[in-house]
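#struct-pred

JT: dropping the chains for the assembly here, can someone run the whole complex?
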Amino acid sequence: MTKSAAQRRREAREEYDAFLAACPSRQLLDRLADKWVALTLSALAGGEQRYSELSRAIAGVSQKMLTQTLRNLERDGIVVRSITPSVPVRVDYRLTPLGASLLPVVQAIKDWAEQHMDRVLAARERFDARDPQRAAS
Amino acid sequence: MTKSAAQRRREAREEYDAFLAACPSRQLLDRLADKWVALTLSALAGGEQRYSELSRAIAGVSQKMLTQTLRNLERDGIVVRSITPSVPVRVDYRLTPLGASLLPVVQAIKDWAEQHMDRVLAARERFDARDPQRAAS
DNA sequence: CAGTATCCCTCATGATACTG
DNA sequence: CAGTATCATGAGGGATACTG
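RK: done, full complex below.
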């Protein structure tokens, strides 16, 4: 008898715990909770994209960070890289099913930031006015 | 005539765009897409927690990072700090309504990492076996 | 207890230059 | 076009010591 998806999920939830410093999921959390990951996956939401398209969509990302981010995501099974050996070469990236399951999660952070920016800015002003000393970055 | 919440949200979605390097939401995304933010808010999911309770719950966090994270979250209106002037002093943190709306979003990343750790580890092994050269961190 | 203040150093990131 | 390689910088983050 095979285990249900819900069963496996429950077990995994017990097996890994990001609250523990040494748990592998802590490192994975650190990799996924990243600005470039959120933007890269969001850019891939519409479907396959070329390297240059991603580079343009994600304003301000350096070649190094984009490549590094994509390489890590590829290694973790979240995106797939496909090469068309034309001249010049063409490289496309797309989400795997695993990546598709992660997309809504990281996109939600990006969306939350965009949608609540005003309230956060207002909160910062109140904080800085009330307590100028503790106001940091 | 006042605008509906949905209207305001739609406008905000157009007003801020984290794909743009100079947009304030890009910086906010950078602050929120953070390991310590995800763990701190997750720890506050159960309700008000003392500083020392948070410190214990989030294994491996330094005083500096915990304090810094809490201060930024407080400034952004995501958590509230309340002091009980006893001896010794007691400080509690809890989510604001704004923070409560962010909680599921960041908790989802932590949960995803815990629940898909096995698949990610398997993907890494496949990648490293297939292509040892490109295998990085 | 709940921080603040320093020192210090690694590593993440950006800029630049080069290549199949 | 889609990277790789190298260098340089500075901010992130840990360790330690001190305080109301």
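JT: nice. The two ends of chain B are 56 Å apart (CA to CA). Chain B has one domain: 24-136.
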